[in-house]
Amino acid sequence: MSGADFCGAFANRNFGTTTFSNTIDPSILKGWGVRPSDWDLGVSVQHEILPRTSVEVGYFWRWFHSFLVTDNLATAPTDFDSFSVVAPADQRLPNGGGYTVSNLYNVAPSLFGVTNNYVTYSDRYGEQYAKFHGLDITLNMRPANNLTIQGGFNGGNSISDNCDIRAKLPEISPLNPYCHVETGYLPHYKFFGSYVIPRADVQIGLTFTSKPGLQVSFAGTPTGAGNLSANYTVSNAAIQPSLGRPLSGNAANVTVNLIQPGSLYGDRVNELDFRVAKQLSFHGWRANISADIYNLLNAAPILSYNEAFIPNGAWLLPTSVMTARFAKLNIQLDF
């Protein structure tokens, strides 16, 4: 546990006392439409473009409402001092590093651990929004008897913003300056093919998917593609020239994400699966026998990464990859 994490865990002077740290706004507890919610709107159209071939196009829009926020009434925005961190030189960082991450906050030492939280709607302080819009295109084909082909892609852009709220309540995310996030369009490709061999009555199927890789993001903000960070631990001594004083609570360091969400993605995750199946009937019994081979090409795309950033160190080294090729035999009896 870092010094910042240790101090943060005990940065509440009410800890271990009979004093309540949180007060809940009564208006968020009961009534119609008071809970956090979201609306979904979807429109799709399907059209036959050739005999036994059709295309379906769908557009989807989703937006969220009634965000909650925790206001520490014991502090005001003027009680937080701002500072910045310079990213180390490292070719893996945008433009080789050396840039400045600003708008980081640290509470005044006299108010460290002073807690009087009030939980209410974020729109009492300003505008906050999160929304998603996406497109789904699917091609369906039956070019011959016993043959089915389906393929297409879908994806969309997620946008979230709480900059108004953070400006008035820096305590909600003092070390997270990325209050506006756009993931960019993240395409997801898909293919499915199935063929039944005549007379043998054996079905063969292939499924292929290609998904976006993990995306650099930060805790608490939806990004739609994962949660990968460049978490850089900065010492108190390195921060003091910018902050003008030591960190509150005698913290030895703080951890800062060096990369703007939406600017870096992991490798795409591609997977090809295969199935062969046969149905047998005998004496009133019916047996469905199938064999599945997952990750047929034995690909090893990265599923998770080392998120701790050390200059020219092990940042982004894989911590897990897709499971190697394996097979599964299925037998189902109906009688």
Put the structure in a nutshell:
The chain has 335 residues and is mainly beta. The chain has helices at 3-9, 163-168, 236-243, and strands spanning 22-24, 37-50, 53-65, 68-72, 80-86, 100-107, 117-121, 129-144, 147-161, 180-182, 188-197, 202-211, 231-235, 253-257, 269-282, 285-294, 302-305, 308-309, 318-321, 326-334.
User: Number of domains in the coordinates?
Assistant: 1
Low-confidence stretches: 1-10, 216-226
Query: What's the order of the H and E elements?
Result: HEEEEEEEEEHEEEEHEEEEEEE
Average pLDDT works out at 89
Distance from N terminus to C terminus (CA atoms, Å) equals 59 Å
The helix content is under 10%
Profile the largest sheet.
10 strands, antiparallel
Structural class: mainly beta
User: What spatial form do the alpha-carbon principal axes imply?
Assistant: elongated
Q: Beta fraction of the residues? A: over 45%
Radius of gyration: 27 Å
Please, how many helices? 3
For the secondary structure, the number of strands is 20
Q: Which characteristics define this entry?
A:
disordered N terminus, mainly beta, 10-stranded antiparallel β-sheet, about 325 residues
